[in-house]
Design brief:
Iron_permease_Fet4, 150 residues, mainly alpha, transmembrane, 75% helix
Length: 150
């Protein structure tokens, strides 16, 4: 068993555990015990430092754990969407891996799909499907027809 598998297993376990009711109850109990011990330690700086240091360390580590879980989930969702795009003959294969585009390029695509939605609402057949490739082919066809008329 190598370290990568060990870390993967640990991070999966930690993500599942920290999102559980048991973990939340445990965290609440720690805070309650800390608060109850305040008078015993006369609300000293050390007493405050214990909770501050503990929560800071846990928060610091949780940021990386949450980001790892988010990256894994995001990648899995993107792969599922890519599979659906690849399997659908009406969908444009150019949509596969668009998460690698720049923010500006994604904004351009978003505007394009807003326009497609508007066109779909105006069409007599509301079930008509548009894709980037279909729209591009229609545009080329219109452009070629217009040039032939001239």
């Amino acid at each position: 068993m190598n370290n990568k598998n060990l870390f993967e297993r640990f991070s999966n376990w930690a993500t599942n555990f920290t999102g559980s009711s048991s973990a939340f109850i445990g965290a609440v109990l720690i805070v309650v015990v800390w608060a109850v011990t305040g008078p015993v330690f006369q609300y000293s700086e050390t007493w405050q430092l214990v909770i501050n240091t503990g929560t800071t360390i846990i928060t610091f580590l949780m940021v990386f754990l949450i980001q790892k879980a988010q990256n894994k989930d995001s990648k899995a969702i993107q792969l599922k969407l890519n599979e659906l795009i690849a399997a659908n003959k009406q969908a444009s294969n150019r949509m596969v891996d668009i998460e690698d585009l720049t923010e500006k390029e994604l904004d351009q695509l978003h505007k394009y799909f807003v326009k497609i939605a508007e066109l779909s609402k105006q069409a007599e057949n509301i079930h008509k499907c548009y894709s980037i490739d279909a729209a591009e082919n229609k545009h080329k066809s219109k452009y070629q027809n217009k040039n032939q008329e001239l």
